[in-house]
Design brief:
Elements (H helix, E strand, L loop, with lengths): L1 E5 L2 E8 L3 E6 L10 H9 L2 E6 L16 H14 L5 E6 L1 H12 L4 E7 L8 H17 L2 H11 L2 H6 L1 H12 L3 H12 L5 H4 L6 E6 L7 H10 L4 E5 L6 H4 L1 H14 L5
Parallel strand pairs: 3-4, 3-5, 5-6, 6-7, 7-8
Antiparallel strand pairs: 1-2, 2-4
Helix pairs in contact: 2-3, 4-8, 5-7
Keywords: Hydrolase
Organism: Prauserella flavalba
Protein name: Hydrolase
């Protein structure tokens, strides 16, 4: 557990293991602990796993207002500069996957491989933009508690909430522990995100797309869309998982990612 001053804020992060750097970006409204199981296993398998808290989340500085995806990406780039990491494999889930695409847009020369989990490359439609702004105001009024309990059965498949109570507790703890101001800023920024679809055909690094087969937020069809447009991309569908397959089906998720990394020999 470490912190560093970056871009005028303090960023919390974990830096585990040694070897080729693998940077994992969490989704909303979570923090870096969503990647803790992967950090432990991947470090054991010879990877240096870096998991930052995005600004407004976890141990990183909360900045009210609006946080565009470009700001998150610049924070990650600056953190890696501070750590002396020039090139790395980059992965993200949900909003984290969109931030990964923004990182690729800003500094493609640094990215050696991609993991895109339960995410979409599309810009927010007009209705979605309004809904995100309204949700931002709701979180400021109510805090994260009511929202967290409302969305838990979509973040985790209901049968996994029953079967994996410790996982459900962890997910709730991350959500309810998130700053309303930080979450609202991310929602406002995310509402204005760019359309990453036009850049997909130009991605020239090994790419793995992963999705839970019960994901309601970013269904399998969206993952297939990504794979069809990213040259050479591979698709893994995790059975019995919703929006957080890395926690719901930890072993299956980790096996798929490690298999991909191992076969993508140029990454090492």
């Amino acid at each position: 557990m470490s912190t560093l001053p970056v871009n005028g804020i303090t960023v919390g992060f974990d830096d585990t293991g040694s070897g080729t750097p693998l940077v994992l970006v969490h989704g909303h409204p979570f923090d870096r602990t969503m990647w803790r199981p992967q950090a432990v296993r991947f470090a054991r398998e010879g990877w240096r796993v870096i998991t930052p808290d995005l600004r407004g989340y976890g141990e990183s500085t909360v900045v009210p207002g609006s946080t565009p995806l470009g700001t998150f990406a610049r924070d990650i780039g600056a953190l890696l500069d501070a750590l002396g990491v020039e090139r790395f494999v980059l992965g993200g889930l949900s909003m984290g996957g969109q931030i990964v695409l923004e990182c690729l847009r800003q500094f493609p020369h640094r990215v050696r491989g991609l993991l895109l989990a339960d995410t979409t490359p599309h810009a927010e439609p007009p209705g979605g933009r309004a809904a995100r702004r309204e949700l931002a105001e709701r979180l400021l009024r109510e805090g994260l508690g009511p929202y967290a309990h409302e969305v838990l059965p979509k973040m985790l498949a209901p049968h996994n909430i029953r079967a994996l109570p410790a996982t459900a507790k962890h997910v709730l703890r991350m959500m309810t522990g998130t700053s309303p101001e930080g979450a609202a800023a991310a929602l406002r920024g995310r509402a204005e995100r760019t359309d990453y679809v036009p850049m997909l055909a130009d991605i020239a690094v090994p790419t793995l797309v992963v999705v839970g087969d019960e994901d309601e937020y970013t269904p399998v069809e969206v993952a297939k869309f990504l794979c069809e447009r990213i040259p050479g991309a591979e698709l893994t569908v995790i059975e019995g998982a919703a929006h957080l397959p890395n926690l719901e089906r930890e072993v299956a998720f980790d096996d798929a990612v490690l298999d991909f990394l191992t076969r993508s020999a140029p990454l090492r």
